[in-house]
Amino acid sequence: MVYIAIIGFGNIGSGVAELLSANSAKVADALGDTVELKYILDINVPVGSPYEKYFIKDFSVIENDPEVRIVVETIGGAGAAYEFTRRSLLKGKSVVTSNKELVATHGAELVSIARDTNSNYLFEASVGGGIPVLRPLAQCLQANEIEEVYGILNGTTNYILTKMRSDGIRFEEALKQAQEKGYAEPNPESDISGKDTARKICILAAMAFGRLLDPDKIPVKGIQSVTLDEVLEAEKQGGSVKLIGRAAKLPDGQIGISVEPVTVSRDNLLSDVNDVFNGIVVRGNAVGEVLFYGRGAGKLPTASAVIADVIDAAKHFHARKRIYFEDGRNDAVGELPVWGNTINS
Question: Does one domain contain both 60 and 180?
Fold first, then answer.
């Protein structure tokens, strides 16, 4: 039996608990062992929840329980999440996360600790929600020299731009609709500014090129200033405006990386990725371009990716972990050549 703990019981944390319960037989079949939830760490205990008995408020209980082999971190941010992750790994516990901010800012350090303690730090759900892309990059495409990775990495911004084009409405109205439908947070700054996409493309670049780049130091343009006229003009010219995160290996060995709204032409693989969907294109020197497509967020899709990593971590208790990327920050960042028609420049 494998015991796990969940820290943070918001949308994703509760989704992990629910999916683990609903698909317990499938998880046991895939692992050859049962996975049992032992603790949930959160300051708020939902009264009447079927998981009420699992709640604790002291992380040291998890930290010092040798039965807990895997910690699922769904707090978000790089504050308490970083501290709890670091302490878990130092205790030899594997950590699975959906936290792109933490992976993008402290991933190299946490991977190094995991290596030293023979544990796992796994983060498939940090990019693309339920879309499997990091594991294919690390495994299925490892015979390729990856030349470029780019895509629509944020469902909120993609929904807004889709509504502007399809309904002929301005940014402010499209954002309001996204908030009413729950696709955008009350404070959508991280999404619309491009910061969320920046974190994700840095993680993808780390997977593709073995170098972790600092998302705070890459060129980022959001969609706040994209006008309806620009969106309609792109449509008239046979394209559509998308917020694209892109990383490519340059001829001199540097890595070019950017986040910006661009006009995507009709013949591009991403042209039909609309609404809240994400699309990620990986170009390798053997396979050419491969598209990963699906819902990039959401409670159960993201929980699906988290639990897949839980199964993987449980399988590798006695094996050396997969190292996703090397320790290196921002010393190999170059300027990308022009790609498509950049707007909002």
Answer: no
* 122 and 214 inside one domain: no
Q: Which residues pair with 262 in a beta bridge?
A: 242, 342
Find where tokens 């022009």 sit. 338
What's the distance, Cα to Cα, between the start and end of the chain in Å?
55
What is the distance of C-alpha 18 from the center of its chain?
20
pTM, two decimal places: 0.88
Count helices and strands (H / E) in the chain.
Answer: 12, 15
221 an active-site residue?
no
Closest CA to 20 of 299, 295, 321, 297: 299
Q: Pick the catalytic residue: 38, 93, 100, 200?
A: 200
Q: Are residues 97 and 190 in the same domain?
A: no
The interaxial angle of helices 299-315 and 24-31, nearest 10 deg, is 30
- Which pLDDT tens digit goes with each residue over 117-165? 999 999 999 999 889 999 898 888 989 999 999 999 999 999 999 999 9
Point out the least confidently predicted range of 7-11, 106-110, 184-188, 210-214.
210-214
Q: Does residue 102 share a domain with residue 10?
A: yes
Class of residue 87 by CB neighbours under 10 A (exposed 0-12, middle 13-18, buried 19+): middle
Range(s) of the domain holding residue 208: 134-295+330-342
